[in-house]
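About this split. The held-out portion is used to measure sequence recovery: a designer receives only the structure tokens and must propose an amino acid at every position. Recovery is the fraction of positions where the proposal matches the reference. Here is one held-out target exactly as it appears in the evaluation file.
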């Protein structure tokens, strides 16, 4: 297996830590340990009782049960805890896919969901979201891509970077397309708890025996540094994942699982405040885009905390983003990191004052670029 560099991570690797204003993130404002303890009533004594033994290959039973409850009551035997959803995704794809397998992926899309299958030697068919349709996915186009040879359909809704999502009826239609050909459906639900105007989608693993769902603390929970995630998958697929994991991470740290269980048992205490903040920030962003419609074109994100505006009359968006960072201290992601070079990813899940200032500086830079 040979993976190509991830442009998104290369762009963020150093600038993430040195930006004056970061409006690039696809996550919400991060919580501190003090806030975590306050929201969970976790005590120092609870931490002191922890023994740093090895952990369970699939995750501690109590934590798997907590994931089960959070995902709508799925079978705990189908749950595996991981170091972020990235580990879950890579384990599942490594266990499931082989060179030459036909795989449908969404474009523009998060690099792991696209590049990992490419690295495994799969034959890729791109389900392209059209900016002229405000990124709304066409199920007819998906149906035209799925064949009897399709091994897996890999999607993430709500979507990164565009913020587009699907309705529950469309979710069922996607499931039906996968079921008709016996394909696996891999559903990255990292942003499932962050929706505007519609409730979160049901866990796809409860709808189809070959569906695999993925979740993470890195987005709606505001705990990216905890590196905790999970997947819900058929038990036989999890067995294959464990056989791969035996050569890599073995298990999740018992400290991470202790904290994760406490968080999952108080999930809404973490999610709701950040969702409320993101909802207000989203309105601020949409108002800003409407006021600057001569320099940006923005489709309103329906979920997540990232938007994907097109920069009007900017010839080289990569150079513009670099200048925005170097001269004005503002970090955004050039759309080239997602194969859409006329766009940028703007995150609106952080502090409102940072978003306001960052958008003002962004507008000033865009106006200057037009002169």
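Reference sequence for scoring:
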């Amino acid at each position: 297996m040979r993976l190509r560099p991830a442009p998104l991570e290369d762009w963020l690797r150093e600038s993430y830590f040195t930006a004056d204003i970061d409006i690039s993130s696809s996550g919400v404002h991060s919580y501190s340990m003090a806030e975590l303890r306050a929201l969970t009533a976790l005590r120092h004594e609870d931490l002191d009782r922890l023994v740093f033994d090895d952990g369970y290959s699939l995750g501690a039973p109590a934590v798997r049960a907590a994931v089960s409850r959070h995902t709508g009551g799925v079978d705990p035997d189908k749950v595996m805890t991981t170091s972020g959803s990235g580990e879950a995704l890579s384990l599942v794809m490594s266990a499931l896919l082989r060179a030459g397998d036909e795989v449908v992926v969404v474009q523009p899309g998060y690099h792991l969901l696209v590049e990992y299958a490419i690295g495994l030697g799969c034959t890729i068919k791109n389900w392209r979201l059209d900016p002229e349709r405000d990124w709304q996915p066409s199920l007819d186009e998906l149906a035209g891509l799925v064949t009897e040879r399709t091994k897996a359909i890999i999607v993430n809704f709500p979507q990164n970077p565009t913020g587009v999502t699907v309705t529950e009826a469309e979710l069922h239609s996607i499931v039906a397309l996968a079921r008709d050909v016996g394909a696996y459906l891999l559903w990255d639900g990292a942003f499932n708890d962050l929706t505007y105007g519609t409730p979160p989608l049901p866990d796809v693993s409860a709808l189809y025996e070959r569906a695999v769902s993925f979740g993470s603390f890195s987005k709606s929970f505001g705990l990216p540094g905890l590196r905790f995630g999970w997947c819900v998958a058929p038990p036989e697929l999890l067995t294959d994942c464990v056989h791969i994991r035996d050569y890599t991470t073995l298990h999740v740290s018992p400290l991470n699982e202790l904290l994760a269980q406490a968080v999952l048992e108080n999930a809404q205490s973490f999610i709701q405040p950040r969702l409320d903040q993101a909802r207000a920030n989203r309105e601020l962003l949409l108002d800003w885009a409407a006021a600057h419609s001569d320099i940006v074109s923005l489709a309103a994100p329906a979920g997540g905390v990232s938007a994907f505006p097109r920069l009007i009359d900017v010839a080289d968006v990569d150079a513009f983003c670099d200048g925005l960072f170097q001269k004005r201290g503002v970090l955004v992601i050039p759309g080239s990191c997602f194969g859409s070079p006329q766009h940028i990813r703007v995150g609106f899940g952080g502090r409102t004052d940072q978003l306001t200032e960052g958008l003002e500086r962004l507008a000033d830079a865009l106006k200057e670029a037009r002169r």
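Annotator remark: The CA atoms of residues 113 and 154 lie 7 Å apart.
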